[in-house]
Amino acid sequence: DAKTTQPTSMDCAEGRAANLPCNHSTISGNEYVYWYRQIHSQGPQYIIHGLKNNETNEMASLIITEDRKSSTLILPHATLRDTAVYYCIVRVGRMDSSYKLIFGSGTRLLVRP
Amino acid sequence: NAGVTQTPKFRVLKTGQSMTLLCAQDMNHEYMYWYRQDPGMGLRLIHYSVGEGTTAKGEVPDGYNVSRLKKQNFLLGLESAAPSQTSVYFCASSYRGQMYGYTFGSGTRLTVV
Q1: CB contact, 8 Å: A89 with chain B?
Q2: What Å distances lie between residue B97 and A71, A86, A94, B6, B29, CA to CA?
Q3: Nearest one of B99, B112, B113, B109 to B9, comparing CA atoms
């Protein structure tokens, strides 16, 4: 599985866009990029995922570069409740018995008032 | 719709004691997982199950056993607790391993003294 690299911590002002980068230079053609977040003391929560096209849902947008070696999670209007640890995970998107999420250390995002 | 329920939420054990953590899900998910999270670190996979009666080892299985006798329940056992097993334990489930569909419980905070 491809390894991901994320900054340890970031901050942004409330109401502004939060852009969280992730490098995955060894990603292979059949690996998806998944984003989860963990708000303090809670279980992780799914945010968004993508293969090669940009994706958007009610929570965030995911921008994947054309060479797929990096991606950016965008929270368009960050609120204080978005303060959390954000995990970028690269995994094969098929269903078999080895199919499991492996978490790294993530990026700790602090949204400032 | 309870999702994933973990019991107990908190527990303090003495070194050498045994205990079982219970995870129950009501979403008819085939796959279930146990993770542990140490302070300031990401989640690490202990064991997982791809169906009733089947289990497999994750990244850090030593010192733990699991059982999946019913589809909706996944039990994590500590036969002889050690201080190194002090951690927050998260259970998760997913539909046939779909990685965008993990649902996590709220966690069990275990302290071994």
Answers
A1: yes
A2: 23, 21, 8, 20, 9
A3: B109
> Distance from first CA to last CA of chain B, Å, rounded?
36
The Cα of B15 is separated from the nearest Cα of chain A by a number of Å equal to 25
Tokens of A53: 């096209």
Cross-chain residue pair B107–A104, CB shorter than 8 Å: no
Cβ of A104 within 8 Å of Cβ of B31? The answer is no
Burial degree of A40 (CB within 10 A; 0-12, 13-18, 19+): exposed
pLDDT digits (tens, 9 = 90+) for A28-86: 888 889 999 999 889 999 999 999 989 999 999 999 999 999 999 999 999 999 999 99
Residue with token string 């064991």? B47
Distance of alpha carbon A63 from alpha carbon A73, whole angstroms? 7
Alpha helices in B1-113 (DSSP H): none
Q: How far is it, in rounded angstroms, from Cα A26 to Cα B85? A: 33
